[in-house]
Write a structure and sequence with these properties.
Layout lengths: L3 H7 L1 H16 L2 E5 L3 H13 L3 E5 L24 H12 L4 E5 L7 H9 L2 E4 L4 H14 L3 E7 L2 E7 L6 H4 L14 H19 L8 E6 L4 E6 L13
Parallel strand pairs: 1-2, 1-4, 2-3, 4-5
Antiparallel strand pairs: 5-6, 6-7, 7-8
Helix pairs in contact: 1-2, 3-4, 3-8
Bound molecules: zinc ion.
Length: 242
């Protein structure tokens, strides 16, 4: 951990809860954040603020005016810039102690992505379409890597953690459909993205109980949360043969 006394001050409010050992675990972890939209903005901000050692940011898009209602890492001056560049600039200002690698690519199960997943402590799914989400799920299941997943639409969202032995996204969601572009009310991806960051911190530090094997469903209309037990699907094409 760089500059021990600075770090003790910066992270004092969480070290007082989870201890120095957890903070050190976080500092030696690598988190792969796939997608830097509304979910990814919140995930990357909170993980950088909390002191994760290394963030690997994957996105192939540039910032559009219509992104700015919810993608809080990207500002008006960033329109037209690559999202990874816009994100790295803000995150470095927030916490210069975090190492950041930028990957300007859309997620596909290429050898390069396989290496990034393999090298990560935890993978966070901040994607906006099911084809890519399921491909990321399959790769994480294959490599035995914990995956934190969330998705949002309108005033609603859901969250789960996929880990070895637990139900995967193909077990939980049989034939998920995309609505593109999905309508989203501004804070909803922030709420679910912050929850994804918290699940990531729990997986890394062991502090708290991750949502592995459970599906959390958030309803912003009434601001209520329900948590369901998820089940392995026999014959699941991704995890059924494990
Ligand atoms: Zn499965």
């Amino acid at each position: 951990m760089r500059g021990l006394s600075d770090a003790l001050q910066r992270y004092a409010r969480q070290i007082s809860l989870w201890g120095l050992e957890s903070q050190e675990k976080l500092a030696s972890s690598t988190v792969l954040v796939v997608g830097l939209g509304g979910l990814g903005s919140a995930v990357a901000l909170y993980l950088a603020a909390a002191g994760v050692g290394k963030l690997v940011l994957v996105d192939s898009d540039s910032v559009s005016l219509s992104d700015l209602n919810r993608q809080v890492l990207h500002w008006t001056r960033d329109i037209g810039r690559m999202k990874v560049d816009s994100a790295v600039e803000k995150l470095r200002e927030l916490n210069p102690g975090v190492e950041i690698e930028r990957v300007k690519a859309s997620f596909k199960p290429t050898p390069k992505m396989r290496e990034l997943v393999r090298a990560a402590t935890v993978v966070v799914d901040c994607l906006d379409n099911w084809k890519s989400r399921l491909a990321l799920n399959d790769l994480c299941v294959k490599l035995g890597k914990p995956l934190v997943h969330a998705a949002v639409e309108g005033m609603q969202g859901h969250l789960t953690v996929v880990a070895p032995g637990a139900p995967c996204l193909r077990c939980i969601f049989k034939n998920p459909l995309d609505r593109a572009p999905a309508p989203v009310i501004a804070p909803v991806p922030g709420i679910l993205g912050a929850a994804e960051a918290l699940e990531t911190l729990k997986l890394i530090t062991g502090y708290g109980k991750p949502l592995t094997g459970k599906l959390l469903v958030y309803d912003g209309f009434s601001n209520t949360v329900e948590v369901f037990e998820a089940e392995r699907r026999p014959g699941c094409p991704a995890c059924g043969r494990r």
